[in-house]
Amino acid sequence: MPPRPAFARAATRQQAGGLASPVRRHALTAPQPDPSQQSLPFSQFAALFTAVMLPMFMAAVDQTLLASATPRIARDLGGLADTSWIAVGYLLATTVTAPLYGRLGDRWGRRNMLLAALGIFMLGSLACGLAETMGGLVAARLLQGLGGGGLMVLSQSLIGELVSPAQRPRYQGYFAVVFTVASVGGPVIGGFVVNHGDWRWLFLANLPLGVVAGWRVWKLPRPPRSASRDAPYDPAGVLLFALCATCALLWLSFVGHRFVLLSSASAALLGTALAAGALLAWQQRRHPNPFLPLDVLRLRGVPWVCLSVVGFSGTLFALIFLLPIYLQVGQRANAADAGLQLLPLTIGLVVGSTINARVSARTLRSGMLPPYGLGAASLALLALAVLPPTQLGIAIASAVCGIGFGSVMPSAQIATQMLAGRERLGAAAALLSLTRSTGAAVGTAAFGGLAFALLDLRGGNSGASVGGLSPERVTQAFHIVFGVLAAYAAAATLAAARAPRMDLRRSVASAAH
């Protein structure tokens, strides 16, 4: 049996500070090394890095990889009006399962649950690659999302389990780099593959990556039994949330082009969503360990933070989904060019996040930039709504949106962590992740549905109708969509303006009060 890696011994011994040294020599005479300066040998670093970063990369890149492939998929499978559910189905499944994976990881082991999530994700990827109809692809994306919900949350949790506190900031930095590369490169890679090959390889490529990731995760050590394994969990809350979210998203996606507002289908979906939501609110207040962290949501200032995140993520993911359709169907760009034209948006996110970090570090205050960033994004979207479309204008507006959006999540993370306090950091992180995913799903469904209703794609017109849409008709419809998106971003600006500004010199404990 090969020897256990040093990071495994460090996690098992649970020593505060740096990684555990396997041998203690001359403890009384030799000075102890600074834990923050210690690093893993390359072989052990590579083992841990590939085990936790590769699953996270697969989950992150899958959120943007299909952006520039959507029109081609609609042509091959038919049903442009249903393509929003390629993204919404995946986002819905990850939204519901991500908090559940966190609880199951505490109960059954994060390594074991990450292996299970990888298996489900790979099975869903295979089903996506073999799909012959739009309905089959959406169902496969739901299955893929059931696994994808655990990849990112469990990968980050494994860092806390296997790496000492002194080394965790370094790995969080690696996470940020990998996530940035995935977000920026996803649309470009997707556009290149679709333009020069078959979109099915975007899914099938996950299979060899998943095999490598599973092998590396399998070689991680099995941690000792967690004390939280016996904590109660809330399957009823998960099911009620899934029912409420599914019915609400179906209604937002299809009202106006699948069925009219005043119809039996509309009433059934909306009524079920409202009833499930009311029952969920009643049930969550009475459960000892609820699915939704209501105790954090009740803290002063947190609702405004969550509303700003819903507005930001909804606008961002709607743009990621709709811009390639606008460029390929309305401006007659190919998939590769559409992917490249998303670069200003994704690179702008990195620039905005960097600017926010430097301003916060210099002023020792967080939360000052999001209102200005969201306001600038709202004005950029308004410009897209009223000005004639040009490649340069779209690129500038996308870059402004990206820079503005980049300040929101870092500030929201700091605010929720400080307001929640040290003892509720996990609940605060779960709430923010749930808020971001829900906002993304709602934005994609609502604004995708609006675009398809304006294009009059009733009954899920076939993919052949995609090429038959005139550029003038598409441009006119998307001008309205961009105008409504600008108003949505403006509402998020108001929420961000009401969110608290956090003094970074205060301790977490004092901020919680």
Automatic annotation (TrEMBL):
The chain crosses the membrane at residues 45-65, 85-102, 114-132, 171-193, 199-218, 238-254, 260-282, 302-326, 369-387, 393-415, 427-455, 475-497. It holds the Pfam family MFS_1. Residues 1-21 are annotated as: Disordered. Signal peptide: none annotated. GO terms for molecular function: transmembrane transporter activity. Keywords: Membrane, Transmembrane, Transmembrane helix. Residues 48-501 form the Major facilitator superfamily (MFS) profile domain. Residues 1-16 have a biased composition (Low complexity). GO terms for cellular component: plasma membrane. It is found in: Membrane. It comes from uncultured Ramlibacter sp. This is Uncharacterized MFS-type transporter. It is a multi-pass membrane protein.
